[in-house]
Design brief:
Strand content: 15-25%
Strand order of the largest sheet: 8-7-9-10-11
Distance between the termini: 26 Å
CATH topology of the largest domain: Rossmann fold
Radius of gyration: 20 Å
Shape: globular
Structural class: alpha/beta
Number of strands: 11
CATH architecture of the largest domain: 3-Layer(aba) Sandwich
Largest sheet: 5 strands, parallel
Order of helices and strands: HHEEHEHEHEEEHEHHEHEHEH
Helix content: 40-55%
CATH class of the largest domain: Alpha Beta
Length: 258
């Protein structure tokens, strides 16, 4: 329940269209719902603008399904990240909706049941290599589910920098974005390159893509943290979801003020 829905409910109580007992029933899961193994934060939509998201690793399929169903009952869009197909199949047995889908490359189970106005401004997601796509797609799907317009650019890393610098359309897409998410493994240099070309926030996502001394993304993480481009901030290794969420919040503020 968001703030507008809460206000409407209170107005209906005031006019007598909804009884106090009915209102209590609607509000009884605020601010959270205790399932025994999890406490679902139903207030997060009101505080942060988007509902709680399910992180699947470490949870059983049964637990994920129970959480997913309770989140879905609120009428919002629902995301379950780092999910495999067995999780999607388990959810699909309980939730029969045309809005339910499995974004395989992003590893996200998505329920789209609330039409969000598409952002006027867009954010860009760019990858250094094709191997970085799964993390980039996690960012893309997250942002799109939050109502953001997203433009996706793949495989323009510094090993062939002419693919970026020599392509005017690609450069124009980046330079007109409100936020750019740069996803890169290996040495993570693309974040600094893009940071030196655009006048918007750059969110760098180091990936675990790379050979031994990459240390499963640590090398890219440290390189991005030490970027000489002032507009670059960094999320955790392989955290496409965090980057997509943060970029969405930034772009939403920009759209609200424009």
């Amino acid at each position: 329940m968001d703030s507008k829905q809460l206000q409407n409910l209170l107005e209906m109580v005031k006019t007598g269209d909804v009884s106090i007992d009915e209102a209590v029933e609607k509000l009884r899961h605020l601010p959270f719902e205790d399932l025994g193994f999890a406490r679902i934060d139903h207030h997060r939509q009101m505080r942060c603008g988007f509902p709680e998201v399910i992180y699947c690793p470490g949870k059983t399929n049964e637990q994920i399904v129970k959480i997913y169903v309770q989140l879905a009952k609120k009428g919002n869009n629902v995301l379950a990240t780092r999910a495999d197909e067995s999780i999607y199949e388990a959810v699909a047995k309980v939730i029969n909706s045309p809005g339910l889908s499995y974004e395989k490359e992003a590893r996200i189970v998505v329920l789209r049941q609330k039409d969000l106005p598409l952002s006027e401004n867009y954010l860009a997601v760019v990858t250094a290599g094709t191997s970085d796509r799964p993390v980039a797609m996690e960012a893309k799907v997250t942002a799109e589910t939050m109502g953001q317009q997203v433009k996706f650019i793949c495989d323009v890393g510094v090993a062939g920098i002419h693919r970026l610098l020599g392509h005017s359309e690609t450069l124009e897409t980046l330079q007109n974005a409100s936020v750019v998410i740069v996803v890169a493994g290996m040495e993570g240099a693309l974040a600094s390159v893009v940071g030196g070309l655009v006048d918007c926030p750059v969110i760098a996502v180091p990936t675990s893509v790379g050979y031994g001394a990459n240390f499963e993304g640590l090398a890219a993480l440290l390189a991005m943290l030490n970027s000489c481009a002032s507009g670059v901030t960094v999320v955790n290794i392989d955290n496409g979801f965090g980057a997509g969420y943060s970029a969405s919040l930034i772009n939403q503020k920009i759209n609200d003020r424009s």
